[in-house]
Amino acid sequence: MRSTRVLTRKWPDQPHWEFDAVRLGVDALGHWVGVPTGTWLSKPDKGFTAWADHVVLLPHDAWWVATIYGTDPDRPVDIYVDVTTPVAWTDDESEVRCVDLDLDVIRETDGRIWVDDEDEFELHQVQLGYPEGVIQAARVSCQEVFEAMANGEPPFDGSALRWIEKLRAAGR
């Protein structure tokens, strides 16, 4: 399976999280990549090794990126969605980029859903000069993701587990 470098940035184009992922496939929702246990994820001031297999959905045309964990007892959360600019791929699809817009929608392992970093989003609107269109798109996206997660809509309905199984099968 091919690898893709995932690069998230901070506004407008400053380094943030990056990692290598395994290309798993594409469906109506977007491109799916896998992050096996042991993968190094880093940003300029820190890094860590993934302690649970997970998949990342890079939507075709949405203002978010979803990280979805399976049923691994060591998973940090069930789902972690970063509100971002739409992803942009290199021509050869060896790299994908987006800009993280601070807001995160998280579903804990106990089922609780909440929005994180609203204070950071407010601060960065001023400090980093987010354009009004970006601010509005991020707010709308955050609300839509929260509602989709609360309503159990794809990909937040358990259907992503098949991609985790594909990742694990590829590692055998």
TrEMBL record:
The keyword Protein transport does not apply. It comes from the Bacteria. Keywords: Hydrolase. InterPro entries: DUF402, FomD-like_sf, Ntdp-like. This is DUF402 domain-containing protein. Coiled coil: none annotated. Pfam families: DUF402 (PF04167). It comes from Nocardioides marmorisolisilvae. Residues 35-153 form the DUF402 domain. GO terms for molecular function: hydrolase activity.
